[in-house]
Amino acid sequence: MSQSHGIQTLLEAEKEAAKIVEQARQYRVQKLKDARSQAAKEIEDYKKSKEEEFKAFEAQHAGTTSNAQTLVDKETEVNLKNITESFNKNKEQVVNKLIDRVVLVKPELHRNLSKVEA
């Protein structure tokens, strides 16, 4: 009877140990789930803060883009005005030179032709 009592005690101890191991596993699994959810929350918070930081940076520098565009537009207007003035100032001279070249033709033999005859 003492042997069966010892075996019974061992079986009860084994069941108790299995319960303790199962509780430890459940505790570990729960801790992992908690850690994952906490990490996901921290990642989301960090992502939101960086997005806000980027939007603030973008808003701060958006004005410089429009300022740069205004500056380029003014510079383009000045250059266009200079080109127009230069055109108006020199167009008559250019037209006269073109007419002179077209109208005043000096008939001459081609330079290669004169070498053949010589």
TrEMBL record:
Residues 10-60 form a coiled coil. GO terms for cellular component: vacuolar proton-transporting V-type ATPase, V1 domain. The keyword Transport applies. One of its GO terms (molecular function) is ATP hydrolysis activity. The keyword Ion transport applies. Keywords: Coiled coil, Hydrogen ion transport, Ion transport, Transport. NCBIfam families: V_ATP_synt_G. Subunit of the V1 complex of vacuolar(H+)-ATPase (V-ATPase), a multisubunit enzyme composed of a peripheral complex (V1) that hydrolyzes ATP and a membrane integral complex (V0) that translocates protons. V-ATPase is responsible for acidifying and maintaining the pH of intracellular compartments and in some cell types, is targeted to the plasma membrane, where it is responsible for acidifying the extracellular environment. V-ATPase is a heteromultimeric enzyme made up of two complexes: the ATP-hydrolytic V1 complex and the proton translocation V0 complex. Belongs to the V-ATPase G subunit family. This is V-type proton ATPase subunit G. It comes from Roridomyces roridus. The lineage of its organism: Eukaryota, Fungi, Dikarya, Basidiomycota, Agaricomycotina.
